[in-house]
Design brief:
The protein is of the alpha/beta class. Helix content is 27%, strand content 27%.
Length: 312
């Protein structure tokens, strides 16, 4: 099968297009023909191994020190069940599915930069939303699941005022839409070119950070979500600035705080919200599998709108 191999840690060019052996499902596994995957922030971090020294040791133990032990990266998939092991009961051949390859506890089980992937049937895998394409389905699980985690962690309540800093990225676009679903008044912070996008997702107010410092406004927020990748911002400085824009009991949440949890319950909720039109996938660009190094380079610049999708 066709796959992208991460030959070592480094720049996008370490990702090489190769032919590898197609996997066969074990008795409790399904084999999925992948039609689309997405490039996540986690993919960029893993490929470049750009983490603080202490985290680097932990990451090296988990996935390998000089190159990934599993050379095929990728955490997200949308595709069709091609075959099943003899003990599989949840899925059947032909089912259209989407999901996340991580194991419980966020342990890495990568491998979606390829034509096929085998996963245990109890993985974070469910039938995809029926009203969207595989490309659109691949744009839902990562940002949507992480946004759900942080919204619930902050105990979001109907009527609260929340602010999303970095509202146009994969996680930010999900935070805006899910914040509205939970009944919040949402302010989105983004650049000039993304104002219309964030407004179209339901944000009550949008602020262009290139022209205005939101902390100078009189508005106070119950929750501020910082959804900007760490490599693109001084997190400590932003957190300090946000303090004066919070209500007395307000909360600041960064996507670097804690370890977001993926679960089947969250995927089911996202599926229902997509099918009922309450949220929608946001796609910036699509690239074919053989151009994945180019796609990684684009994502690494930190200016994507929503998700960058790889078609297979």
């Amino acid at each position: 099968m066709k796959a992208i191999i991460c030959t070592k840690y480094g720049p996008p060019e370490v990702l090489q297009f190769q032919e590898v052996e197609k996997p066969a499902p074990k008795d409790n596994e399904v084999c999925i023909k992948i039609h689309a995957t997405s490039i996540t922030g986690s993919d960029i971090i893993i490929r470049g191994f750009k983490v603080p020294p202490v985290m680097g040791i932990m990451m090296g133990i988990a996935i390998g020190f000089t190159k990934p032990r599993n050379p095929i990266l990728g955490l997200i998939l949308a595709g069709e069940i091609e075959s099943t092991g003899k003990n599989v009961k949840r899925f059947k051949k032909g089912d259209q599915v989407y999901g996340v390859t991580l194991k419980t506890g966020m342990q890495p089980r990568m491998g979606t930069y390829a034509e096929y992937k085998c996963l245990p049937e109890d993985s974070f895998l469910i039938l995809k939303p029926s009203n969207i394409t595989y490309k659109e389905a691949a744009a839902i699980p990562y940002g949507g699941s992480i946004a759900l985690y942080f919204l619930r962690r902050a105990n979001i309540q109907n009527g609260q005022k929340i602010l999303v800093y970095g509202a146009s990225g994969s996680i930010g676009t999900s935070l805006v839409q899910l914040g509205k679903y939970f009944g919040a008044n949402v302010t989105g912070i983004c650049s000039t070119s993304n104002l219309d996008l964030v407004k179209s997702l339901g944000a009550d107010t949008v602020i262009d950070y290139t022209k205005e410092d939101f902390t100078n406004r009189e508005e106070r927020y119950d929750i501020i979500f910082d959804a900007v990748p760490a490599r693109m911002i001084n997190r400590k400085s932003l957190k300090s600035r946000c303090a004066k824009a919070l209500t007395p009991n307000g909360k600041y949440q960064s996507i670097d705080d804690g370890r977001p949890e993926f679960n089947t319950e969250g995927l089911l909720l996202l599926k229902d919200l997509v099918e009922t039109g309450k949220i929608k996938p946001v796609i910036d660009r699509c690239y074919p599998l053989e151009r994945i190094a180019e796609a990684h380079g684009y994502v690494e610049k930190g200016h994507k709108r929503g998700n960058v999708i790889i078609t297979i």
